[in-house]
Predict the 3D structure of the following.
Amino acid sequence: MQDVIILGATGSVGRQTRDVIAAHPDRFRAVGLAARRDVGGMQELIRELHPSWVYMADPGPAAELREDIPAGVDVGADAEFLAERIGEASAGTAVVAAMAGFAGLVPTLAAVRRGLRVCLANKETLVAAGALVCETARRHGASLVPVDSEHSALMQAIGTERAHVAHLWITCSGGPFRGFAASALDGVTAEQALRHPTWRMGQKITVDSATLMNKGLEVLEAAWLFEMPLERIGVVVHPESIVHSMVEMEDGAVMAELSETDMRIAIQLALTWPERLPSPARRIDWAERRAWHFEPPDEAVFPALRLCREAGMAGGTAPTVLNAANEEAVARFLGGDIRFSDIWRLTETVLERMPAQSGTTLPEIMEADGWARREAARWRPVTVGGPSC
Ligand code: MG
């Protein structure tokens, strides 16, 4: 029996983790659930999964939850409660790290310090603090297993042949604006950006998929997970999202993982890797006539890949700053405050203003993150003919 803690339990990956646990009740047991504020979603999960503790990051929802909670379920709302519960988890517990954004870093680090299996769905954690997380994982014997579909595909395609890998190819749906001209992107709405062609996900990652920032963050994530230099990681647009990524071996053979777009495959595999279990996920219908397409990304229209690569090459806290600026930019775009293409402009400007910083301790990362968020909040778009900030 595998104990499981879900961080970000009421989000998209969290709910699909619930499905995986429910499909294998003899194999998995949810012991702890953490979310920010979705009381209704959490109550539903508590009824189904019977955890022994629950954490809500916002105190209001935690108080509301305490009013109507089954006996024996411990509810906490401060960060120490969460760190303590993770710190006292039994050896062998798997932590599904599926909180959105930089907020996932501290609880993920707690799981890494405890030497647990960390099923990583939160790529921002590795982008913002890759050196710290990987070094801490090595020191404490924690394993970082990807949940992100592309990285799960890379892990499977690499198998036991890590020494023979020449190049990683990360596939990308291209998002809802594939084929758009740069001039058309200023006018696109949040509603359009939130309409992803192949995956149903949370808002932040869906906007990141539309800007291709998600793919750039995935390149940085892959560099840490597979210890691969950035120049050996490429991106290929594949609109059908069936081939989830590819590994080119030194002899030219290319290994790929293919499946329908169903995150439950990657979530379950992260919990059991290198073992596999049956899954209710949809199957590819090979009787259906179809074509799959591959093309290079248009980096002139979508500058996010370049921004991520540059931040990755600069190293230190540059990726931390990139991540924080992008998170703030996405929030401002969703709030109707800036235009779609301003997400890149804002992120690039904040990166350019960034003071050089090579340290990657937790306080240095926190400081760089906070600085970038303040810069991102005061950024103003340049209006043609008008004053700029
Ligand atoms: Mg992905």
About this structure: The chain has a mean pLDDT of 95. The domain at 2-146 is CATH 3.40.50.720 (Rossmann fold).
